[in-house]
Amino acid sequence: MRVSGSLRKSILVLLVAGGLSGCVDNREPSFENFSPKEIYDRAEYELETGNLEDSARYFGEVERLYPYSEWAKRALIMQAYAFHWDRNYEESRSAAQRYIDFYPADEDAAYAQYLLALSYYDQIDDVGRDQGITFQALQALRTVIERYPDSEYADSAILKFDLAFDHLAGKEMEIGRYYLGKLYYAASINRFRVVVEDFQTTSHTPEALHRLVEAYLALGLVEEAQTAGAILGYNYQGSEWYNDSYVLLTGQGLLLEPVGSSWLSGIYRQSIQGKWL
Questions:
Q1: What is the stated purpose of this protein (predicted)?
Q2: How far apart are the first and last CA of the chain?
Q3: Exposed, middle or buried: residue 78 (CB in 10 Å: 0-12, 13-18, 19+)?
Q4: What pLDDT is recorded for position 126?
Q5: Inter-residue contact 141 to 164 (CB < 8 Å)
Q6: Hey, is 97 helix, strand or coil?
């Protein structure tokens, strides 16, 4: 964003009057004698120049000194934005939530909700095995999708929702593979079952079915292994996981077909035969 002539002028006024150009005592500027627009312009300038912490603080001064003005409303959403790009997600979330609470019918309420969702989503890869933040991201993204379906943020929220959902499935797979590698077959089956039952629309389902084939064969539960292979063959026959399961099962003289009455038989009836009873 280009800095206008009027903005440059207001910045110079603030620099001179407030001592913002590196005065000896380095005191924080006092904004009581400045208009909300002048403070807002200063905050915007700091944002443009990458001083995100100062920008967020100055946007907060607009809200503090002129709480019922139009400038305060604009400053609040911009403060949430500045906090977010400064990776201060908790403060960004707080500012975004205040905007939603104060201005629920405003046109920028959708963006505030989207910023709130991003404050969770952008932390997903940093939280290790604790997936609580991912669930919070999913909930906040769902709110964007359901409350603001016609907004410009809905499509992005849908994409991020799918990615976050896939991330949860990936974490289940990670733990399941760990258990499988340690020969804790029952524990690994529980993890892969979660993926097949609760995350079946994600990219991890083919591998989960193959890992179930491996685990069940290791336990000697051939009917369950065959049924997992049948589901895999019906839905993902072109995948590498189907090929691996095919080799495993046929190598033991087994067919990839539904056998028995396990939980996988129920999945087969529902997803392939369309039978829910």
A1: Part of the outer membrane protein assembly complex, which is involved in assembly and insertion of beta-barrel proteins into the outer membrane.
A2: 60
A3: buried
A4: 57
A5: yes
A6: helix
pLDDT for the residue numbered 33: 81
- Helix ranges (DSSP H) in 19-108: 36-48, 52-65, 70-85, 89-102
pLDDT at 277: 38
- Measured CA to CA, the distance from residue 265 to residue 277 in angstroms comes to 11
| Residue 130 DSSP SS3 | coil
Residue-wise DSSP of 133-170:
HHHHHHHHHHHHHHH-TTSTTHHHHHHHHHHHHHHHHH
CA neighbor of 225 nearest in space, from 239, 205, 211, 206: 211
pLDDT the model gives residue 31? 77
d(CA 143, CA 96): 14
Domain boundaries, the chain: 1-86
Q: Is 215 helix (H, G, I), strand (E, B) or coil?
A: helix
pLDDT of amino acid 16 = 35
Instruction: Check residue 273 and give its pLDDT.
Output: 58
Residues of the chain with confidence (pLDDT) below 70: 1-29, 126-130, 272-277
